[in-house]
């Protein structure tokens, strides 16, 4: 069964073709980052308009590259939420119309379920059950995963998501949007241990996170320096280390609490090399295993949506022709 996956929840137009037996056939991605860069953040209306412009050509390109025709598609998966309402509606309306015209099913996928299942696209994929740390620009979640659709929320950020904190700290350091990857590049030049940032909410029990304090700490620390290039790199490194260690402390706790020995880390921030290293070191000490998607599938993409939708369609899940978009949607 060939499944077309469509992702338009934020600032990436992602399309993929996934086959239930053969695996991922092809994926295409168009990033709006350069357009939003000019405004220092995402402009929702511009995001929707750009998805409208790019989505159909991207579907055609993906089919052409795979040497497939529209009539070969047997199901369509699209991101139904959470995300920007206008952006979601472009994907949902396109998916539903195409599915109706081809007389095939379309299924709405939860964006974070897409991230959560992204490591399943890799050769070395995790078996159920596992603990998932989902770290993106909009969410930071710890989830106990027993199978497809069997998700128990263990903890979440009470304020900013980890990616959001990265982007805001990066802005303070004078970096462009989205700042996460740029901050991590800058941190490479940083001297370790010059600044000691807090590890928020690690001194009390529980699996929730809070990252907004790290943002304030970044601002206060920067203001106490001359803000030379070295000062900025040192602050970037201290921020990144604090975030990585906070995530590692909570993941270790989640593994202990659930008794599980498998950790999946996904979402945009999981592309961060330092965070991958710190989490890997922790997991080795715990005699557990760790799984990440390849870096290009850590950030938003159509492949993870096609995979998640394929599993749902194989389980005979159906939905009405009604256009379904849920900007807020708990996992
Ligand atoms: O999952 P994603 O592509 O979109 C959402 O669902 O939000 O995540 C985007 C977030 C942004 O905040 C971006 O700065 C962050 O992931 N990010 C990173 C890195 N790559 C992407 N943060 C830190 N280090 C990175 N290498
Ligand atoms: Zn995402």
TrEMBL record:
Entry function: Required for the formation of a threonylcarbamoyl group on adenosine at position 37 (t(6)A37) in tRNAs that read codons beginning with adenine. Is involved in the transfer of the threonylcarbamoyl moiety of threonylcarbamoyl-AMP (TC-AMP) to the N6 group of A37, together with TsaE and TsaB. TsaD likely plays a direct catalytic role in this reaction.
Record GO terms (molecular function): iron ion binding; tRNA N(6)-L-threonylcarbamoyladenine synthase activity
Coiled coil feature spans: none
Keyword line: Acyltransferase, Cytoplasm, Iron, Metal-binding, Transferase, tRNA processing
Main location: cytoplasm
Domain of life of the native organism: Bacteria
Family statement drawn from the similarity comment of this UniProt entry: Belongs to the KAE1 / TsaD family.
Chain positions recorded as substrate binding sites: 134-138, 167, 180, 272
Name of the featured protein: tRNA N6-adenosine threonylcarbamoyltransferase
Matches recorded under InterPro entries: ATPase_NBD, Gcp-like_dom, KAE1/TsaD, Peptidase_M22_CS, TsaD
Membrane-spanning parts: none
Enzyme Commission (EC) number: 2.3.1.234
């Amino acid at each position: 069964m060939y499944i077309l996956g469509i992702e338009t929840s934020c600032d990436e137009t992602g399309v993929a073709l996934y086959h239930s037996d053969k695996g991922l056939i092809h994926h295409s991605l168009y990033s709006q980052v350069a357009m939003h860069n000019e405004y220092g953040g995402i402009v929702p209306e511009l995001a929707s308009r750009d998805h409208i412009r790019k989505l159909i050509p991207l579907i055609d390109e993906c089919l052409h590259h795979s040497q497939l025709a529209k009539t070969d598609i047997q199901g369509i998966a699209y991101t139904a939420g959470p995300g920007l309402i206008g952006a979601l509606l472009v994907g949902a309306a396109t998916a539903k119309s195409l599915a109706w015209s081809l007389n095939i099913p379309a299924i709405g996928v939860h964006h974070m379920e897409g991230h959560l299942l992204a490591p399943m696209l890799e050769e070395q994929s995790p078996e159920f059950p596992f603990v998932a740390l989902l770290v993106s620009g909009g969410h930071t979640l710890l989830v106990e995963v027993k199978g497809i659709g069997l998700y128990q929320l263990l903890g979440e950020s009470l304020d900013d998501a980890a990616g959001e904190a990265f982007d805001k700290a990066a802005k303070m350091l004078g970096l462009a949007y989205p700042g996460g990857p740029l901050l991590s590049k800058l941190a490479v030049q940083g001297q370790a241990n010059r600044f000691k940032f807090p590890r928020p909410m690690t001194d009390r029990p529980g699996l929730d996170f809070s990252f907004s304090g790290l943002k304030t700490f970044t601002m206060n620390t920067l203001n106490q320096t001359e803000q030379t290039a070295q000062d900025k790199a040192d602050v970037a490194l201290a921020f990144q280390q604090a975030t990585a260690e906070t995530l590692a402390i909570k993941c270790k706790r989640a593994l202990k609490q659930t008794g599980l020995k498998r950790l999946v880390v996904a979402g945009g921030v999981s592309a961060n090399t330092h965070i991958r290293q710190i989490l890997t070191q922790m997991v080795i000490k715990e005699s557990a295993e760790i799984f990440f998607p390849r870096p290009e599938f850590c950030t938003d993409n159509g492949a993870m949506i096609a995979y998640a939708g394929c599993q749902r369609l194989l389980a005979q899940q159906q939905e009405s022709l009604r256009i379904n978009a849920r900007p807020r949607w708990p996992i």
